[in-house]
């Protein structure tokens, strides 16, 4: 399969890229100028230096699948409302539409558990159908993208999937996040500043999350318009 990937240098994107190459897929990966993958990549990748809104349709033609993992404002980054909605909604939906016009038959995008917001507290196990009640620019823009993507799938009857992973950890994660901070403190023998630990969080390894995205991409029982 020939895959066009956004966010290929990011935490999840780099792991997805590596696993896709190991499975024998050809990957064209989008990256911002000057960025490099969070982990070493073994294999041949066609890198495209561009922003989301600047990708010409010609680069998408001939691809079998479009995987959108790029996002603005992922923790611990900060972003403002305008930029978050510009990148995560307007530019992202425009690129998905471009991929469809290019003839790509399978679209896979990444959501966020942050879309649930305070609604998550009402469930012991959060169903995918739980209401979205996000707060802040990142979570709100991701929820808006989910709604727009759902409407686009219904309108075009295209095969569009969105996975909404929860917290994940592993090699290449930003040092400011919980897992690398905790690991660093443990290895150096330092105290680790933390809260009382009353929060409930679901953690998965980034390798497992990347594997789940690839498995979803290769499913043969997708229905269009959903």
The gist of it:
By secondary structure, the chain is of the alpha/beta class. It contains six helices and eight strands, in the order βαββαβαβαββαβα.
Tags for this model:
alpha/beta, Rossmann fold, six-stranded parallel β-sheet, 8 strands, 15% strand, globular
What would you say this structure looks like, in words?
- This protein has 226 residues and is of the alpha/beta class.
- It is built from six helices and eight strands.
- Helix 3 links the parallel strand 4 and strand 5.
- It is globular.
Alpha-carbon distance between the two ends: 22 Å
| Total domain units | 1
Low-confidence stretches: none
Find the CATH topology: Rossmann fold
SSE topology:
Elements: E1 2-6, H1 11-22, E2 26-31, E3 46-49, H2 57-60, E4 65-68, H3 81-101, E5 106-110, H4 137-156, E6 159-163, E7 167-169, H5 178-188, E8 203-205, H6 206-217
Helix pairs in contact: 1-6, 3-4
């Amino acid at each position: 399969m020939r895959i066009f990937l956004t966010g290929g240098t990011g935490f999840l994107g780099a792991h997805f890229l590596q696993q896709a190459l190991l499975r024998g897929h050809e990957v064209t990966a989008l990256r911002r100028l000057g960025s490099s993958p969070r982990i070493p990549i073994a294999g041949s990748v066609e890198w495209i230096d561009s922003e989301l809104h600047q990708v010409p349709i010609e680069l998408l033609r001939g691809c079998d699948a479009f995987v959108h993992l790029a996002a603005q404002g992922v923790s611990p980054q900060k972003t403002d409302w305008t930029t978050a909605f510009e990148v995560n909604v307007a530019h992202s939906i425009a690129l998905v539409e471009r991929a469809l016009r290019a003839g790509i038959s399978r679209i896979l995008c990444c959501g966020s558990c942050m879309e649930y917001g305070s609604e998550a507290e009402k469930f012991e196990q959060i169903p995918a159908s739980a209401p979205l009640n996000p707060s802040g620019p990142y979570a709100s823009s991701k929820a808006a993208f989910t709604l727009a993507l759902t409407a686009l799938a219904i309108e075009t009857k295209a095969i569009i999937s969105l996975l909404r992973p929860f917290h994940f950890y592993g090699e290449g994660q930003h040092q400011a996040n919980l897992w690398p901070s905790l690991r660093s403190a443990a290895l150096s023998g330092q105290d680790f500043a933390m809260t009382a630990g009353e929060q409930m969080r679901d953690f998965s390894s980034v390798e497992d999350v990347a594997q789940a995205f690839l498995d979803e991409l290769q499913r043969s029982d997708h229905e269009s318009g959903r």
